UniProtKB/TrEMBL annotation:
<dbReference type="InterPro" id="IPR026444">
    <property type="entry name" value="Secre_tail"/>
</dbReference>
<dbReference type="Pfam" id="PF13517">
    <property type="entry name" value="FG-GAP_3"/>
</dbReference>
<feature type="domain" description="Secretion system C-terminal sorting">
    <location>
        <begin position="379"/>
        <end position="437"/>
    </location>
</feature>
<keyword id="KW-0732">Signal</keyword>
<dbReference type="InterPro" id="IPR028994">
    <property type="entry name" value="Integrin_alpha_N"/>
</dbReference>
<dbReference type="InterPro" id="IPR013517">
    <property type="entry name" value="FG-GAP"/>
</dbReference>
<protein>
    <recommendedName>
        <fullName>Secretion system C-terminal sorting domain-containing protein</fullName>
    </recommendedName>
</protein>
<dbReference type="Pfam" id="PF18962">
    <property type="entry name" value="Por_Secre_tail"/>
</dbReference>
Amino acid sequence: MKGIILFILIIASNVSFCQFRQPVVIDDDDLEHIKNIKIIDLNNDNQKDIIVSYSNNSIIWYKNENLNFTEMPAITNSMNKPVYIDYADIDGNGLEDLLVSNSADLSKIHVFKNMSDGTNWEETIIDENIPAGISRSMFADLDNDGDLDIISAHEIDVSIYLNTDGVFSNQISVANNSEYYNLVVKDYNNDGFVDFFVNSAFGLQLYTNNQDLTFTSQIITNELHALLETHDIDNDGDFDVFYRDNSQSGNIKTLKNDGVGNFSLFQSNNFNVGVVQNPSFKFINLDADTFSEVIYTPISPQEIRYRTNDGNGNLSTPNLIDSTYEYSYVTGGDLDNDSDNDIVWYAHSNFDTKRLGIIENELITLNLQDEESPRFKFFPNPVKDVLTITNLQNSKNLTIKILDIQGRLVYKNNEVPKFIVTTNWSDGLYLVQIDNTIFKVLKSSK
């Protein structure tokens, strides 16, 4: 059964509908709280699997076989409160390895090397003497020598662990004058060296790589919250930054990057998301175009929503994807190899079963015509009050649907009428679907 139509992408003479199926539960067997979800092909079968960190000390992965998911033997069952997962092929064997950090009174950084097909793991503890919780640890080439190092944000320190011939050692503290709650890593000034942002007790700070394993810090804003993400929102090749402000409503602010590491406030949107380090707020390309949308779950109501991106970074008003369960985490990836990203979700409430599941995304492309065809003619176009439809071939038993540019249904009839009143429609582009053909109609009140 199909879900709602999300939005419409017009490309040349085609129109694409991004649709979602109903949510499917893949595990509800006495689950613990989920801290992080990654979508990775662990066994090199060209199908992305689901990897989950649970609060009961375990990292579990679910093998994907044509959207049928099987719980595999745990990667670990003995890691105290695992939180954030990162991944990369660090040993060059063609398989994705995992970097996992935990948040406990005495925290550790673990690397799990994938030795075969996701069923044989070699665990190495990189650091086991961290006297504070860890928010995030990530793979990144900090010294620009061609191999991946580790950078880790602790509550009292940000440290780098250099990779020397596959061994992570030589810990270097690069920030230690505050408390650090979150971390994102990219080359923000396009000089070829990786920089990083942290949320700290001083606020949001940018650390610019001086190309010698030292960093120059700059406070961007003194607003303090844990949520921090990075993405190229306006598709200009530079990574922008997103953080939650101090408001009670959970506004997320966008800082646009000018390409050389200077940031300015671009927009503030009310997402009503939580303050956790790994928020349910992700940039996912839903329609296989060149820029990403935002999917998220607000604190209340706990449903899955999305906001479209106009390509310049401007985000739409909220649109509903699903409200079947009380969702608390959402992310996405292409689970069925059809070039559009599907959704992976976690849902729970105080009185409800905890569930892990997916929502399949199906991108449908139809032929897009102008206002005339051998079968139908629409006039006037643009239309103000009444749209006239001429059925040139007297076609029968055809359903007509009219949608706005956001994919919302504004009109439906099981027969094609001669007239449709458009007086109350908002100005803008509308798509008229008859059979498998889409026609463009413009509404204008002028």
